[in-house]
Structure formats: structure tokens, C-alpha cells
Write a structure and sequence with these properties.
Elements: E1 2-3, E2 6-7, E3 21-25, H1 29-41, E4 45-50, H2 54-64, E5 68-69, H3 73-78, E6 84-87, H4 91-103, E7 107-110, H5 118-131, E8 135-137, H6 145-155, E9 162-170, H7 188-204, E10 209-215, E11 227-233, E12 239-245, E13 254-261, E14 264-269, E15 283-288, E16 299-301, H8 313-325, H9 333-352
Parallel strand pairs: 3-4, 3-6, 4-5, 6-7, 7-8, 9-12
Antiparallel strand pairs: 1-2, 9-13, 10-11, 11-12, 13-14, 14-15, 15-16
Helix pairs in contact: 4-5, 5-9, 7-9
Length: 363
Amino acid sequence: MKVGNYEVSETVPLPPKSDYGIGLVGCGGIVNYAHLPAYRANNLNVVACFDVNREAAEQTAREYNIPKVAASLAELLADPAVEIVDIAVPAQHQLSVVEQVAAAGKHMLCQKPLSTNFRDAARIVEIARQAGVKLAVNQQMRWDAGIRVARQLISAGAIGEPVDGRIQVNVKTPWDMWPWLAAIPQMEVMYHSIHYIDSLRFLFGDPQRVSSFHAKYPGQKAIGESKTLSVWEYPGALQVLIDSFHANWSDEVSAIFRFTGTVGIIKGTIGLLYDYPNGRPDTLAYQALGEDGQPEPWQEVPLTKKWIPDAFIGPMASLMEAIQTAAEAITSGADNLRTFQVAQAEYRSAAEHRAVEPGEIVP
């Protein structure tokens, strides 16, 4: 589609070969309402699944016509039909799974966050490297329609020099969908805003320093933070803001992004958060600064794709392309460590009340 003078697309292309046999490890909610609908819509080849809860695996297999339910992780990994392992387990269990997947010589798509700490996250990436297998991380917001189109416009120079980027979310998040999160000391940034961190890195690159402020809503059950404000500093004029609030009890929610440059502005909404997990398509509009120094009319961009499930094809398609080309996946393990560093820098900033450089975070 045409936006101003720029050609953009919300559709995620598949690589030439997309029939790799996929084995699922973990058959919980996100797999059933996000991963598998995206894979089915794109005719991917899911050949087996495993979950420590056998009933969950069997139910998933029935719902999505998966031919094999493995009795153990070892059985799934021993299956020669499984070429890519899609891991969807809580972060604290991911290292153990990755060790076994890498030892079996299988490529893998890991859940985000990679781990609960940077040391183990770095170890996960190194294990895959030493085994000679590809590892990508399921940071799928990069392929959400609004972010994907914004990236194309920014890369094409449609906004000129970026000077301000912000994602501001004021919603009612159903944390009880993930009861295990209540005991996680690092909650909002690691399990929600990490999407925004990764997407903003995708749009603008790595920040020089971050300052972050964390709070809890009165009476909340979870021990971790549920409200965060983070500001990123870059050399030059660019600043980035992430503003996340999850206890909006009103009937008016808001989830917006706005990216301003010297000659253009992109604004829009994150449709998923208006009715999670059903959501709606994002919205996006673009305004250019005319040659006469006056703003041109806003151009609405007709988006039809939704974050869930449509964006979930992105990380898997990128991983498949990396396998074929010997390149790195867009959300490779090495790239995701930089997202992890920014997230942990935000925690250190909040704890120490100072600006923190992401490079301070080391294994």
C-alpha cells in the first residue's frame, strides 16, 4: 500500500521453504490462541507437541490436528520429523529445555524473556552458538502491523531525523491469566514492556542511557512492579518514553504510539490492548511536513492485521529464513540480549535512582 510517497506492507512474507517440521514444547494459552492460529493461517507444518500436563498437550493436538503427542521432551527431540522446536515455557525453565534442544541439534524459537537473569540468558545464546543451531526469540511485536509499517516509513526517511518516540499504555491488564506471575519480583518490564523495549530498539536502535521509575498499584496481589515510566537517552535530539499503567478501572483505555521526526509524524494505537487477548487491528496515521513548512493532512493507513495472532508468524518466518540463508534471525539470541540489557538497566535505574547505561549489565 502507498503512504505518501512510500510503499509499505503489513504482510509478513514467508521464506522460500516454510515446511520445516515444528515441535511444540509447552501447550498453554499463548500457544493455543497465538502461535498455532498464526501457523495454521500460514500452512506451517506442526508435527508434534509436548507438555508436562499431558491433558493440555492432547487437547492442543486435537484442536489443531497435530499428529503426535510426545510423552516426554526426549521423545519429541528424538523424532526426526521435528526440525524446529517452538519453546513456550516460563522463563525459569527455559535454560534446561534449551540445553536439551541444542544437544539434539534442533533449531529453536524461544519464549521471551529468555531467562529471569542476564547470566542465564547469555548462557542460552552461547549454548545454541556452540551447538551450531539457530536460536530466535519470540519478540513478535516487531511484526505487529503498526510497528512493522512504522519501521518501513522510518527506514525510508518518511519522518526525517527521529526526535521523539513514545509508547503510552493505560489499560486494565488481566494479570490473573498468568497466576504464576504473582510470585515474580520483576513483572511489568520483563513480561510486558519488554515488547516495547524490543520494538523501540527495532525502530531507533540501542539507547545510550535509561532512567526508569517503578511502582505497584495499591492492594495488588503480585509482588512485582505493575506501573513503570522509562525514559531513554540517545546522542543528539532523540528521546524515547515508555509509560505503562495496568490498573485502569475505567471504561476508557488507551494504548498509543507516536514517533516524531523533523519532517514527519507517525501515530497510532496498539489494537490488541483494547480487548486483550481478542484485540483489534492497530491504527496508524502519517503526517508529513510540506515544502512550504506547513503540515500536510493526516493520511490514515488501513491496517487489517492484529498482533494476536498475525504477528506471531514473524519470528518463526525469520528463523526459517535464517536457517536457509545462514544469516541471523531478526530477533536472534544475540540481538535479544541487547533487549534484555535494556530491560535490566531499567530495573537497576529504578533500584538505584540513576541513569544506567545498558552496557553495565553483564553476565
